[in-house]
Amino acid sequence: MSPKLLPRSVVEIAASVRGGEVSAESITQASLDAVAARDGQLGGFLSVAADLALQRARDIDLRRERGETLGPLAGVPIALKDALCTKDQPTTSGSRILAQGIDQQGRAIDPWRPPYDATVVARLRAADAVFIGKSNLDEFAMGSSNENSAFRLARNPWNLDRTPGGSSGGSAVAVAGRMTAGALGSDTGGSVRQPAALTGTVGVKPSYGRVSRYGLIAFASSFDQVGPITHDVASSAAMLQIIAGADPADGTTTHHRVGAYREACSRGVAGMRIGVPAEYFADGLDDEVAAQVRRAIAALEENGASISNIELPHTRHAVATYYILATAECSSNLSRFDGVRFGHRAHGSQTLREVYETTRGGGFGPEVKRRIMLGTYVLSAGYYDAYYRRAQQVRTLIRRDFEHAFQSVDLIATPVSPTVAFPLGSKLDDPLAMYLADVYTLPASLAGIAAISVPCGLGSASGLPVGLQIIAPSFAEEQMFQAAQVVEDTAPDREVIPQACQS
Amino acid sequence: MTRQLGAIVDYMADLQQVDVQGVEATAHVQLDRLQLRDDTPQDSLARQSVMAQAPEAEDGAFVVPPFVDES
Hints:
The structure holds 2 protein chains of 2 kinds. By secondary structure, chain A is of the alpha/beta class. Chain A has helices at residues 10-18, 24-42, 50-65, 119-126, 169-176, 193-199, 233-243, 261-264, 287-302, 318-333, 352-363, 366-379, 385-405, 431-436, 442-447, 477-490, and strands at residues 45-48, 77-81, 101-102, 108-109, 130-135, 182-187, 202-205, 225-230, 273-277, 306-310, 411-415, 450-458, 465-472. Chain A is built from 16 helices and 13 strands. In chain A, the strands form 2 sheets. An 11-stranded mixed beta sheet of chain A has the order 1-5-2-6-8-7-12-13-11-9-10, with helices on both faces. In chain A, strands 3-4 form a two-stranded antiparallel ribbon. Chain A starts with 9 loop residues before the first helix and ends in a 13-residue tail after the last helix. Chains A and B meet through helix 10, helix 11, helix 12, helix 13 and helix 14 of A and helix 1 of B.
């Protein structure tokens, strides 16, 4: 018998656990049963913490029986992207360099166990969420298909031959595959939004500075943000509510007021001005994606929003700009993986230089090496001005595009991905083609502003999920959720269950 | 790998056509909003828990092969 499908809503699970209608233990067990039944095929998890999760769930149930008030995410099963540090628990960032090897099942042997929790992890735990395990990802969050994971292939629950997207592919698989109600991912250039779009889930990239990055293994520090992936908009709002806010351990977090995100979801879009940039509907956008995105925008209009055409003229430079800046930042960030202080050290090195060379040479996969080399190239003395400095200037122009647009509109609506989920292996030999698929998510990342991906129906040709992106100014997440909820409420195909969850 | 890197670098040359005359560089979107904390000592992670994850450690120090005069 197939395990009963987990309830979809983070909000409803927490309410029923808090109200004593269902035990945290039974929800946790249902989540673990789903992982046992489906994850062998789906590859969403790199490690599962079954005993710890059950122990934690029983503790939550016990506290409720004693009359204690439980946290706002009581008993909610959550998957954590394996780029997030979990104290004394395996943390690999999808890389061999943080493990001593890989076993036959693609599991890390003796992985790194961080001495501390990421702030977002500590906050979810304090809200009484239950962590089921660490989810699969492209190595060090570099990739758009999850195929750069050093450990396992992740498959899209809607079609097992397709990618779930990346880099937070495993987090999206955990949710779309009905194994957890929610997940945390990290979004540097679209790594939460794109997998959410490709798996029919909701994914949020908060404004830069909204959520602490402390304990998120750094890829590109001027872009990285942690965000939730869930089945519905209200659940993402509920999770962001918990993880948002200033953190003394991350100096880039701001004291800007945290909004009332859950409440915002019910406010509607009457009178809201939403811009549609022509640059996001140009060549390369699949017809079936364009059709659903335009239908969703029409639904926003029917619900009282005013839609207008806007221009974001520097959009076409976003891919080059991002891949210069992000690789530059990664080449610096990843220098810490040197085989000296933590993780893997290659055996048999006679000199320190050999330790570095053999540890990094054997520990990093091809995409990570590619980006480190590109990053050091664009930062090198002879090319710094032509590449790195110029890209920083174009970043300014892209920010100005948005600043200008937000003078006349409140939000911007676009596609998330130019295509539905693409076949596994189809872009593996062509990294540039993989980068170009990020064209619609990169501009908001470069500008540091907020964006969400909301399912807006299935493609008419493929039957695979399509996501609508709503982009908001910095710290305007409330308005973003207002519109996202309307998109969700008016989306077709909401009750279709992914192939992998049907049997 | 060389061919792939070449294609990517060629693509990045796209930025050469953008007019950036007089445009300031964005190093970071948040620098104007950063807040400094008080300069007071705080507890940090226990040395033992940090050293426990090192590939090789001894007497509270990381151990590496010799690197002086390694020519």
